Amino acid sequence: MTHLLKILALAALLQTVTVLQQPQAQDGSYDIDCKIILCLPAGFPSGCGDAWKTFIRRITRVPPKPPIGFCAMGSVRDTEMHDTHPDRLDVMFGVIDEKRMERTLRSVKVEYYRSRQTCCRGRECDDEYPCTFTYFINGDGSRFRQNTIEGHHTGSKVAYTDLDGKACVAGNSRSWVPPEQKCRTWGRDDDSYCWTVRPGFWKRNATCDTGP
Fold first, then answer.
1. Average pLDDT, the chain
2. Phi-psi group of 48: left, alpha or beta (phi > 0 → left; psi -120 to 50 → alpha; rest → beta)
3. Residue 96 has what pLDDT?
4. Same domain, 40 and 70
5. pLDDT, tens digit, for every residue of 20-45?
């Protein structure tokens, strides 16, 4: 199924909006919240760039906002609800009435890799290793935290359960895979020589067949 057909299928599932007929908010602007809900289960495929940028921009605000806001649709089309309201997802799920979509949206967990650093272990801080300062947040905005994780990473990683119940990773995140080396020792003094058998590279983390 092409990227466009995936989006259209999701739009039919929601019975609200489609990519071809862009929804309008009450102020006449494009309702990006509805597009995020449509694009996310398909891994933010081609044509979802604006939804992806808004999704990530929200968690980088100070203070961070939930990446999934409120889409006024169906019987709540005229409802005004802030995109951080704690009941907004329950209201939307009552209209969608689709357990697979609810499971997908509730399962969203986002990692935003803010900056790459060098960390160290030990009392004397003599064991240095690469690390990345990271934001963590759930799709509904809960459990926001920030911490450093081992390894160098870049971009944003979105983990969720897709409509078929499969674990999926979307986003533009990449992780650095260090070069592989081999070493040889010889002689009484255990002299050693090391060489690179594989250079380091950036590995894309997405497991979905689409991405922003």
1. 82
2. alpha
3. 79
4. yes
5. 334 444 443 458 888 999 899 888 98
3-state SS string for the chain: CCHHHHHHHHHHHHCCCCCCCCCECCCCCECHHHHHHHHHHHCCCCCCHHHHHHHHHHHCCCCCCCCCCCCCCHHHCCCCCCCCCCCHHHHHHHHHCCHHHHHHHHCCEEEEEEEEEEEEECCCCCEEEEEEEEEEEECCCCCCEEEEEECCEEEEEEEEECCCCCEEEEECCEEEECCEEEEEEECCCCEEEEEEEECCEEEECCCCCCCC
Number of domains in the chain: 2
Q: How deeply is 28 buried, as exposed, middle or buried, from its count of CB atoms within 10 A (0-12, 13-18, 19+)?
A: exposed
List pLDDT tens digits, range 136-164: 999 999 999 999 999 999 999 999 998 88
Q: Are residues 94 and 183 in the same domain?
A: no
Range of the domain at 46: 3-106
pLDDT tens figures, 98-135? 889 999 999 999 999 999 999 999 888 889 999 999 99
Residue ending a domain, choose from 74, 106, 138: 106
Residue 210 lies in a domain: no
Q: What confidence tens digit (pLDDT) does each residue in 187-210 have?
A: 777 788 889 999 999 999 998 765
Q: How many CB atoms lie within 10 A of CB 107?
A: 15
Largest Cα separation within the chain, whole Å, is 82
